[in-house]
């Protein structure tokens, strides 16, 4: 729908506060693992729940977003999520035990699961179709930059103050977000309530929870042989398959899987999943090379990742404008070509490679990310009915998280096996790590190359009138 001049910008700012708060907090808290271990005399596996529970509860809550937004309105659910995140931050800051912190993170994850899928839906509703690329590009810049500066902010707060400040720092942003959301987000008229899909909710909650939990505990190939991992993993996969079966036959499904009959949305989800594997694959592989093999400090590694985030944040708004004005396949394809080149460059790293060269390749990777990653999602949802965007965003997010988890496990297992094989043949650790990472980066470059025809097809589909598209 059309909005009064300037209203769209106010909605965008309101959503940006919430998005920025969630992304900043999650990346900043990763640095507190070592301090929490010392403070509460806990093991690494115990403290890892501070990160793991957030991701699991967020993934498990996302499927509810569409139903709740339809019943109570997007504004109410978004604000409820933001209030929940604020409450979780307060509980975390006041926690007297590790269990209290983990509980607070679980609440934050539930809140984030309500907020994040609604972000694009609220932005789309505030802008006409020909301006949504630019708006989502600005939103994407915040999504990129917050995780990049999070470790820096977290490191400074830990150096100058206390781990509790990592929770307290969220509160000003969350309060501003609440104030802006109350003032600028439009309340929606009530809709006819539909019957809640209890069976579907139980199946997808069980499926996502057990799969994400099981994958988060896999570090080596032998882990997949342990009954305590493989049993819940198989149970989760079976629950997800059962969920698909039930939803396709339910009169009021929790998630409308018929959205996948929209060719553009279907292709965009596949693109998002493949690019998520690349994104999180780099997050896994680059620190392995820089810190484990070459002995660089976490700060140096963080600066290299900052190059990626800054480049992506700078390119994302520009890419958003380009996909509004021109056939979107050109922007996405250019981004993917740059991605392939940067991954091939990272695959050629040696012990003699200067840090600035690694930073240059990572910056180039950021350009590709900004031009191809979020634009694919935006383009894929452009033609969907506005009432379906929240569900589509939730399904896109869940698909990306599952594919990224599988990709990380596959890369971790490959790296562990390849390094051990090379070491057994007499190679040094640096040589073993380098040879293993070469092939891993080349494999990611191959995935990016496979995305090229999909991006081109997505652009062509979006430009084709709906009446003549094929399913």
From TrEMBL:
In terms of PROSITE patterns, this protein maps to: MFS
A GO molecular-function annotation: transmembrane transporter activity
A single Gene Ontology CC term = plasma membrane
Cellular localization per UniProt: Cell membrane
* Keyword set includes Transmembrane helix: yes
TM stretches of this protein: 12-34, 46-70, 77-95, 107-126, 138-157, 163-184, 196-215, 227-246, 267-290, 302-323, 330-352, 402-419, 439-459
Q: Where is the Major facilitator superfamily (MFS) profile domain positioned along the sequence?
A: 11-463
User: Membrane topology for this entry?
Assistant: Multi-pass membrane protein
Checking InterPro entries in the record gives:
EmrB-like, MFS, MFS_dom, MFS_trans_sf
| Keywords recorded for this protein, A-Z | Cell membrane, Membrane, Transmembrane, Transmembrane helix, Transport
Pfam entry (one): MFS_1
Q: Work out whether the entry's keyword set contains Oxidoreductase.
A: no
Q: Family per UniProt?
A: Belongs to the major facilitator superfamily. EmrB family.
**What is this protein identified as?**
EmrB/QacA subfamily drug resistance transporter
């Amino acid at each position: 729908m059309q909005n009064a001049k300037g209203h769209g910008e106010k909605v965008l700012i309101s959503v940006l506060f919430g998005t920025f708060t969630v992304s900043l907090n999650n990346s900043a808290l990763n640095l507190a693992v070592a301090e929490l271990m010392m403070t509460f005399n806990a093991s690494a596996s115990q403290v890892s729940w501070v990160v793991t529970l957030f991701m699991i509860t967020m993934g498990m809550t996302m499927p509810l977003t569409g139903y709740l937004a339809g019943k109570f309105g997007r504004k109410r659910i978004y604000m409820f999520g933001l209030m929940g995140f604020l409450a979780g931050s307060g509980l975390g800051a006041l926690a007297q035990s590790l269990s209290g912190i983990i509980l607070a993170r679980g609440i934050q994850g539930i809140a984030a699961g309500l907020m994040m899928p609604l972000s694009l839906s609220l932005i789309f509703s505030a802008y006409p179709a020909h301006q949504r690329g630019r708006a989502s590009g600005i939103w994407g810049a915040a999504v990129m930059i917050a995780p990049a500066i999070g470790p820096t902010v977290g490191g400074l707060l830990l150096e100058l103050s206390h781990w509790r400040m990592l929770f307290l720092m969220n509160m000003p942003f969350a309060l501003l977000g609440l104030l802006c959301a109350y003032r600028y987000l439009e309340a929606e008229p009530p809709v006819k309530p539909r019957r809640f899909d209890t069976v579907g909710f139980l199946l997808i909650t069980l499926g996502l929870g057990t799969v994400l939990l099981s994958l988060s505990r896999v570090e080596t190939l032998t882990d997949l042989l342990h009954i305590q991992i493989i049993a819940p993993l198989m149970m989760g996969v079976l629950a997800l398959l059962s969920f698909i079966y039930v939803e396709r036959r339910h009169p009021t499904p929790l998630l409308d899987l018929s959205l996948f009959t929209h060719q553009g949305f279907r292709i965009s989800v596949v693109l998002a999943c493949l690019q998520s594997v690349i994104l999180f694959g780099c997050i896994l592989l680059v620190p392995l090379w820089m810190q484990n093999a070459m002995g660089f400090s976490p700060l140096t590694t963080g600066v290299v990742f900052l190059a990626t985030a800054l480049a992506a944040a700078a390119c994302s708004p520009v890419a958003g404008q380009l996909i509004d004005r021109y056939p979107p396949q050109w922007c996405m394809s250019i981004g993917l070509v740059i991605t392939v080149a940067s991954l091939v460059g990272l695959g050629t790293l040696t012990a003699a490679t200067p840090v600035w060269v690694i930073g240059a390749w990572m910056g180039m990777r950021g350009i590709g990310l900004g031009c191809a990653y979020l634009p694919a999602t935006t383009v894929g949802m452009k033609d969907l009915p506005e009432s379906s965007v929240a569900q589509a965003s939730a399904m896109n997010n869940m698909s990306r998280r599952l594919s990224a988890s599988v990709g990380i496990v596959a890369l971790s297992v490959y790296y562990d096996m390849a390094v051990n094989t090379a070491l057994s043949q007499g190679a040094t650790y640096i040589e073993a790590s380098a040879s293993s990472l070469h092939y891993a980066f080349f494999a990611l470059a191959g995935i990016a190359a496979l995305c090229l025809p999909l991006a081109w097809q997505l652009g062509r589909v979006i430009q084709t009138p709906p009446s003549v598209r094929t399913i």
